[in-house]
Amino acid sequence: MQKITAHKNSFSNFTFSLKKLPWEFFLLLITALVFTLSAYASPYFLDVWNLSDATFNFVEKAIVALPLAMLIICRDIDLSVASIIALSSVAMGFAAQYGFAIELIVLIGIGVGMLCGLFNGWVVTRFDIPAIVVTIGTMSLFRGMSYILLGDQVLKDYPEGFDYFGQGYVYWVFSFEFMLFLVATLFFYFLLHKTNFGRRCYAIGNNPTAAFYSGINVKRHRLMLFVIVGALAGVAAVLLTSRLGSTRPTIALGWELSIITMVVLGGVNILGGSGTIAGVFIAVFLMGIVTFGLGLLNVPGIVMSIIIGGMLISVIATPVLIRKFSQRS
Amino acid sequence: MMFKKLLATSAIALAMLSSGAVQAADIKIGLVVKALGIGFFEAANEGAQEAAKELGGVKVIYTGPTSTTAEGQIEVISALIAQKVDAIAVSANDTDALVPILKKAQQRGIKVISWDSGVAKAGRQMHLNPSSNSLIGEMNIRLAADALKAGNFASGDIAILSATPTSTNQNIWIDEMKKVLPNFSQLNLVTTVYGDDLADKSYREALALFKTYPNLKVIVAPTTVGILAAAQAVKDQGLIGKVYVTGLGLPSELAGHVDSGAVHSFAIWNPIDLGYAATMIAYNLVKGEGSETKISMGRLGDAMLDENGEAAMSEPFIYDASNVHKFADIF
């Protein structure tokens, strides 16, 4: 069924930017509304330092959400991202224990992420196994490796200065993490919307067969996307490890779902073929503000999950409902 | 539809605001637990609210993540920092990962203590342990003596059923037990066996004890797995009233055995007292009361701090037929 709809839309979706503009606008409107409501509800919300502190809780996830959006547009998915973060954090922890320099530790973190991504991509493309199956497997595999390597131990011999990535500020209230997220957003915006590489994502997402026959090396493209997702998971591992100042195998446990939630909330079609970086960018803030705003009101986490779940379902349901109503009229 | 959803959200938000309104003069203490929805911590909150009521002008914000992760706790703690609470008392999911955010809290003038599950020294001002090793050891022997008395035995053999031979906590406690044993001449310790904290192995070790030591009167199990398995063994072998089981256990697991008589009494920390003590200490820190070595815990007396800034709340709390059912609902 998924294929049929994709066939139907394969041409119309190429004009995504115009068609999707109201979607981002809609998302932006909700974000502004939630922002205003939060500011009204809590006297502590409109405080630059509080807002700056709040960004720490979501930018690491957001940095992985950007490349993951591209992967999902390509009809693939990576559920192992949180486990990749754990494994590369463990690798960095051991590197730090051996007294490696900061630059090398960071490189190892990102490198391990890329290797994990490469492994995911290789299995998916080489054996034609659905990405969701492979990455459910590697989700346990990478996490399991972290547990075996570390057990109930903790690695915390990070060198002086390593804390800058997750705790440092570039200028005033702007943290290194946050600035890196802005740079990453620009990079992925450019990559997805301004390059051939990005256009191929939509082509493959809409119809892989057609894309293949039009001369796109579909497998290589998907493989590269997995590697990019892995690399950014490695970057997130650097930031998170630096922010916590320590590594345990449970690090980033359960993050894959919040990361995918950001992507889907941003209007990326979970079946592939459509979505924008701008949408994901706004969704990241929407989720961040909702979480922080409700947190300030000491709303229990479980109620927060309900609200975010409700938001997500509404977001997925809205386009479907709009289509239904427009077809009727 | 989205609009309705938004209306609902804002209604909830406003409702939360009005119910959560705090007077500006109140001292706000954030009680952060490992995860919400755990009976043990709900009970600790009960104690914290009791302390707040007793003190007056104190608002306890009971909060925690939905799952027991360090990242979730950090998110919750940063929300507390943003609300400018006066103190944070945390039962940590991770000794080390919480240090940076708690350091930040301290930099912003917030008093930080850990309780139950500690934070590394750099991240907190003090840590409140539910009890201490020597108090736990002594309590276990006292419980054995009580069990002997309950069975109207003048004296008798006792055996220890521990976890694994390498369990750090249990080994320390057993050493502490042996230290106080000479004061209880009616107790004759015959052996220490290991059930490896496995239900079936502990059960079999208990059966072996019955056979090897016909004069055995009490099994002391300083482990929740062991005490449960031994109590089951006593019941299954029809030895109720002849052999008593005691040690450290959970009320919810042992309530039935207390009813049957296999267990006369046992001990474990009292979570209500723990929440109460943590709140009292946090309050006193905010008020600048107490010293480097001593701080008041209200009705529970003074906490004595060691050189690491750690203190023990009290000896383990005794549970018997009079109170076990009340706590069985909690944890």
Secondary structure blueprint with pairings:
The complex is a heterodimer of chains A (329) and B (331).
Chain A: H1 2-9, H2 16-41, H3 48-73, H4 81-97, H5 102-127, H6 131-150, H7 164-167, E1 169-171, E2 174-175, H8 176-194, H9 196-206, H10 208-213, H11 218-244, H12 255-265, H13 277-296, H14 301-328
Antiparallel strand pairs in A: 1-2
Chain B: H1 2-19, E1 27-32, H2 39-55, E2 58-63, H3 70-82, E3 87-90, H4 99-107, E4 111-115, E5 126-129, H5 133-150, E6 156-162, H6 168-180, E7 187-194, H7 199-212, E8 216-221, H8 224-236, E9 244-247, H9 251-260, E10 265-268, H10 271-286, E11 294-296, E12 302-304, E13 310-312, E14 317-320, H11 324-328
Parallel strand pairs in B: 1-2, 1-3, 3-4, 4-5, 5-13, 6-7, 6-8, 8-9
Antiparallel strand pairs in B: 10-14, 11-12
Helix pairs in contact in B: 2-10, 5-6, 7-8, 8-9
Q: Any key phrases for this structure?
A:
heterodimer; A: 329 residues; mainly alpha; 14 helices; globular; disordered N terminus; B: 331 residues; alpha/beta; Rossmann fold; 2 domains; 6-stranded parallel beta sheet; 4-stranded parallel beta sheet; 11 helices; 44% helix; elongated
In brief:
The complex is a heterodimer of chains A (329) and B (331). Chain A is an all-alpha fold. Chain A is built from 14 helices and two strands.
CATH top level label of the largest domain in chain B: Alpha Beta
The domain tally of chain B reads 2
Q: Indicate the low-confidence ranges of chain A by residue numbers.
A: 1-18
Helix percentage range of chain B: 40-55%
Q: Which oligomeric form is depicted? A: heterodimer
Strand content of chain A: under 5%
* Helix residue percentage of chain A: over 70%
The count of strands of chain A amounts to: 2
Termini separation of chain B: 42 Å
CATH class bucket of chain A: Mainly Alpha
Q: Report how far apart the termini of chain A are.
A: 24 Å
User: Whole-number average pLDDT of chain B?
Assistant: 89
The total count of helices of chain A amounts to 14
Please indicate the percent range of residues of chain B in DSSP E strands (runs of 2 or more).
15-25%
| Rounded Rg of chain A | 20 Å
Domain count of chain A, please report it: 1
For the largest beta sheet of chain A, what order do the strands appear in spatially? 1-2
Spatial ordering of strands, largest sheet of chain B: 2-1-3-4-5-13
